[in-house]
Predict the structure.
Amino acid sequence: MFRTGSIVLRRHCRTNMLTQIGIIMLFWLIGTAAAKATGISVPGSIIGLFLVVALLVTKQISVHSVRLGAKWFLGEMLLFFVPAVPVVLDHPELFGTLGLKIVAVILLSTAIVMAVTALFVDMVYRYLARRQG
Amino acid sequence: MNIVHLIFWSALTIALYHAGKLVNRRFHAWWSSPLMIAPILLIIVVLAFRVPYKEYISSTHWMLAMLAPATVAFAIPIYEQRELIKKHWLILMGGVLVGSVTAMLSSWFLANMFGLSDQLRISLLPRSLSTPFALIVSGELGGIPGLTAVFVIITGLFGATIGELLLKSLPLQSTIAKGSLFGMGAHAVGTAKAHQIDSEVGAISGLTMVLVGAVNVLAAPLVEVLLR
């Protein structure tokens, strides 16, 4: 009877998105508790992430019981950023020239960072590939 | 906090987000990102109702909080691309270090060039990190975490677009260079874009984003010393 119960539970975990969202949130809570208990300044979500990777690699959990939930989180992630934006209303100084300057800094700096990083990685990759081949 | 406010502002935010998604499906342009349309409409509504931000955010804070469990979800693409990552972890780590130093230096010098105040400059520093990391670093260095959150979003939004343009114009051959570009420059928003391009590029971007966050939180105390 226990066995049928566990099979039913497993099948439920593999097909139900809400359950999987719950499983992922559980690992976030565990990560947060671990961060608080040890007092390190790494966000609990990152501890949770590495915990899930470790459990997947060691086959303690099956990727099928979290994949749907992860797909939902990653697909709808932009929603979670939206409520942060109206904070600009509390900073009227950002409208006008100062705001334009800030946007200019962000645009230029982001373009520089992306180009430098990608070119560096590609250069090292090609160097290693040539040396090996 | 009022339950009616909670339901009203949450439902409105979700509805505007889905409206943004519908528009994006039709136009596929940078201005039609749900992260562009939804916040602008939202600001108009919040202004029209004369509601202070504090009241709005107290009803919708739970959505921001969802960013943390969403970060855990990056474990799955990382696990699925583990072979690729295992093969290239050293180059990826090198890219993260080079990218982080470039991010700090370029933000600092550009902010100086445009004559921004110290507090703004510091709030700008951690903006290429994913939100939970950025807020920690901004707070530790003496910036304004609320503003950093907005800078993070602007960075993600523009970064995802710039990234797509750079991908077309730079002579990049490897998947890992493409993934590093998005993960280093535009955190989660860039990673979402990267997943649209290719699942390998997306996984590399997700891992890079996590590594960048971790490296920068660890380096924050060092940067704090340098700023003095």
Notes: Chain A touches chain B through 70 residues (CB under 8 Å).
